[in-house]
């Protein structure tokens, strides 16, 4: 289990399996957590619906703050490798309360995306089963709430069990699943380009460099909504950092792995977005990406027309593999953040327990699985548009804790900024710029989300505001309430007596 500081001034490990993954394994876990094929099928259409043909420009615009924040994570991890990442670093920079809320933002964002992943995996499980059996009644089981929820909870339980067994088990599964989804995505892109050149679909459009111009988006509101979705599509690369205590070369390898993952992601998104747009366009009719009837699950609509009946099934398999792989690895950041918060007395001590055989935060992992299942069940029962609304709300959470972490980097290293140009830019200018961009998206999204028409257009009965606003603000408010309760039970942490700037970090070997 983990104490904080040992008697010789060094830090005892928290009991995690040291040296479980290397550079390639860490990068694969980062890519898997993001789940590019799942992200594309969930948001490609919604983004096109918001910004039209400027979708590739918005993908690039979303990549910029992510890259700037990634520099902040790299610098913080190099100085303070700790599985608590954003929580630990923000506490050291800004104090226990801001740090606690930053940790809560990461935890709740992960719970949201886990539920979303499970929902998409469930949908594609039944779609795939229907395609294989050629029985539409089987595919229609996805629309049966009881069958959908039961399948979803089963998938969550399986993913929890695999994650419970540690990174070694996780890594072995991920190489296959990530390789499969990237290969099928490459085939889809190639065939979409082929269909576009042949003019196979009436809605297809010719490529234009104007697609790369973010200033051509019709309104700031549309741009912000598209940017929020784009930011969601990159979320998860920081899992590389969360697994730092289990990575070979903990101070440097996770940062390098996260940058590799980011490059793979932006390349995949641009290629797919451009190819799909050329093939079917971004309009709201027929196969157009912005068609509201298919925009929430684009690949389900495009698999057959673009790839044909036989190969189209492979795309269903790829989405299922992508969601299932990410469902498994996304338990890593939430469980390890909870482990760190418990180790530093910001949560009950029971969550600091590590399984003696698997070297994983077992109780934290199981609790995350239960919370995910409960959240998805409740949201599915009260909302018909749970996937769309939770993705928009997730954008709020991502901007919240990423921006806090970026600002924490600049403040923590403020004394180093005059030492060299490198320190000035990588520890100060880049993180602050990334933090400001994400903070601006957070504020604009929060303002826009007050309108009931934002997101799916769903409203909470009796409140008169949009579901996205209620979900986002409600979850942050819940975190504040839990923090106040925790403060009464763990006063030492909130008095700043447990985790301070001078608390030594985990001693690692590079």
From TrEMBL:
Keyword tags: Cell membrane, Membrane, Transmembrane, Transmembrane helix
Transmembrane annotation, as ranges: 21-45, 51-73, 102-126, 146-164, 176-194, 214-237, 257-278, 298-321, 362-379, 391-412, 424-443, 463-485
Q: Which residues, if any, are the signal sequence? A: none
Q: Is Ion transport one of the keywords UniProt gives this record?
A: no
Its placement in the membrane is given as: Multi-pass membrane protein
PANTHER family from the xrefs? AMINO ACID PERMEASE, AMINO ACID TRANSPORTER-RELATED
Name this polypeptide is given: APC family permease
Supply the source organism for this entry: Streptomyces polychromogenes
């Amino acid at each position: 289990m983990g104490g904080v500081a040992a008697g010789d001034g060094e830090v005892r490990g928290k009991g995690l399996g040291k040296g479980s993954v290397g550079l390639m394994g860490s990068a694969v876990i980062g890519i898997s957590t993001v789940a590019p094929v799942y992200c594309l099928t969930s948001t490609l259409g919604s983004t096109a619906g918001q910004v039209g043909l400027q979708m590739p420009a918005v993908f690039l615009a979303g990549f910029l703050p992510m890259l700037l924040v990634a520099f902040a994570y790299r610098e913080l991890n190099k100085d303070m490798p700790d599985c608590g990442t954003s929580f630990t670093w923000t506490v050291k920079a800004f104090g226990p309360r801001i740090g606690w809320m930053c940790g809560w933002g990461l935890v709740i964002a992960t719970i949201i995306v886990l539920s979303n992943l499970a929902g998409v995996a469930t949908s594609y499980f039944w779609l795939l089963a229907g395609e294989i059996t050629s029985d539409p009644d089987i595919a229609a089981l996805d629309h049966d709430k009881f069958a959908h929820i039961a399948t979803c909870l089963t998938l969550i339980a399986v993913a929890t069990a695999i994650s419970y067994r540690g990174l070694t088990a996780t890594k072995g599964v991920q190489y296959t699943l990530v390789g499969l989804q990237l290969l099928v995505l490459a085939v889809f892109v190639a065939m979409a380009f082929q269909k576009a050149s042949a003019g196979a679909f009436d809605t297809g459009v010719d490529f234009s460099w104007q697609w790369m111009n973010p200033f051509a988006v019709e309104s700031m509101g549309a741009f912000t909504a598209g940017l929020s979705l784009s930011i969601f599509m990159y979320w998860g690369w920081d899992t590389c950092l969360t697994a730092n205590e289990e990575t070979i070369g903990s101070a440097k390898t996770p940062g390098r792995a996260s940058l590799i993952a980011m490059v793979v992601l932006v390349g995949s998104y641009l290629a797919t977005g451009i190819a799909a747009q050329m093939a079917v366009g971004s309009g709201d009719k027929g196969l157009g990406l912005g068609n509201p009837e298919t925009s929430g699950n684009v690949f389900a609509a495009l698999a057959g027309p673009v790839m044909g009946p036989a190969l189209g099934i492979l795309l269903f398999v790829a989405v299922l593999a992508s969601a299932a792989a990410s469902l498994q690895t996304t338990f890593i950041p939430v469980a390890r953040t909870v482990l760190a918060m418990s180790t530093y007395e910001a949560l009950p001590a029971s969550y600091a327990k590590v399984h003696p055989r698997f070297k994983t935060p077992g109780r934290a992992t199981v609790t995350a699985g239960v919370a995910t299942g409960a959240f998805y069940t409740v949201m599915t029962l009260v909302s018909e548009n749970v996937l769309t609304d939770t993705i928009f709300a997730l954008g709020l959470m991502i901007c919240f804790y990423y921006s806090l972490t970026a600002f924490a980097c600049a403040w923590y290293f403020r004394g180093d900024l005059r030492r060299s140009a490198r320190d000035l830019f990588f520890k100060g200018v880049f993180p602050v710029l990334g933090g400001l961009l994400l903070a601006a998206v957070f504020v604009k999204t929060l303002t826009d989300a007050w309108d009931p028409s934002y997101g799916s257009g769903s409203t909470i009965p009796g409140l008169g505001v949009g579901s996205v606003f209620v979900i986002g603000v409600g979850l942050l408010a819940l975190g504040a309430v839990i923090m106040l309760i925790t403060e009464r039970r763990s006063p030492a942490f909130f008095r700043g007596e447990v985790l301070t700037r001078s608390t030594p970090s985990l001693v690692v070997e590079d």
